[in-house]
Amino acid sequence: MKYNCNPIFTGKAITAQRDGETVHYHYGPKDLVTVLFYIFITIILHAVVQEYILDKISKRLHLSKVKHSKFNESGQLVVFHLSSVIWCFYVVVTEGYLTNPRSLWEDYPHVYLPFQVKFFYLCQLAYWLHALPELYFQKVRKEEIPRQLQYICLYLVHIAGAYLLNLSRLGLVLLLLQYSAEFLFHTARLCYFADENNEKLFNAWAAAFGVTRLSILTLAVLAIGFGLARVENQAFDPEKGNFNTLLCRLCMLLLVCAAQAWLMWRFIHSQLRHWREHWSEQSAKRRVPAAPRLAARLIKRESGYHENGVVKAENGTSTRTKKLKSP
Questions:
Q1: Distance (Å, rounded) from C-alpha 38 to C-alpha 245?
Q2: What does the angle CA 62 – CA 67 – CA 68 come to, to the nearest 5 degrees?
Q3: Burial degree of 31 (CB within 10 A; 0-12, 13-18, 19+)
Q4: Which of 111, 137, 138, 142 could pair with 241 as two cysteines, CB 3.0-4.6 Å apart?
């Protein structure tokens, strides 16, 4: 067996002599420098997309400040989610994780990663870390900062957890499901900003959101709760990257379930608020009182016609009585 090391990534690269060389990597302290380098690249790409694509489109739409901020957010995330879905799907298919679901938990811990898997995780961490300074660069409103910090931290915790706990295979599939639903949501919001009467994609996203939450929970319970529980190597050994103990599995499941429950609660809350606003608008339209009808008044008109404000008789003489002059 031959060992090699790539200066970009940390860890040993094992090569198999069967059918050519196959290089694998594992994480280490030098990943922090690599992620920092990719953060600067991501900031540059973010600025390019903003200046050459989103700014030109937003000028044509003439959006308000609030909608303009949301438009920029959704525009950036549509580009990111689309590229991540395509990239993640390619990795999952080429590595055979879809055709063989048992590979998600078999041979755990998955310490050694293929190049494309490690590169994908480092880019994901770089993107969500770059989103923190972008809150300042984009001059996000103070009311929007807590909401954006919540989902940024949520992504960082799950991606870093899957990477450091050697659950990279399961993390790839879960990210594929999550990013697909998020791409649909931000696409629907962009279409809504272009045409406020277009809300069909929101209905499709609402259905996909529920299916995604159920799929993530099912897959996490299947892989962590049942799959890892049947693996022979069950011990807590951080040096070998093994965290397959009952306590660790319960903490992982609790984190995933709590995150999905929180997302589902926010979704239901927003949908109920939207429906209440819709029904209140509809009821307000129905309760608008009709204009009171004036009572018909019979107007007695004098015979003849009007000319210069004076009623004239049929023969052209005035209808007023003439005063007789004394001789």
A1: 34
A2: 60
A3: buried
A4: 111
What is the per-residue pLDDT for 14? 44
Residue 119 located in a structural domain: yes
Q: What is the pLDDT of residue 107?
A: 87
Q: Give, for 291, the enclosing helix (H) or strand (E).
A: none
Number of alpha carbons in the 13 Å side-chain half-sphere of residue 315: 2
* CA 228/CA 226 separation, integer angstroms: 6
The domain of 239 spans 23-283
Exposed, middle or buried: residue 245 (CB in 10 Å: 0-12, 13-18, 19+)?
middle
Residue type, 263: L
Regions of the chain where pLDDT drops below 70: 1-21, 278, 282, 285, 288-327
User: Please, is 234 exposed, middle or buried when counting C-beta atoms within 10 Å of its C-beta (0-12, 13-18, 19+)?
Assistant: middle
The model's pLDDT over 194-207, given as tens digits with 9 standing for 90+, comes to 887 777 888 899 99
Q: Residue 59's pLDDT is what?
A: 87
Question: Has residue 325 been placed in a domain?
Answer: no
> Does residue 8 lie within any of the structural domains?
no
HSE-CB at 8 with a 13 A cutoff on CA atoms is: 9
How many structural domains comprise the chain? 1
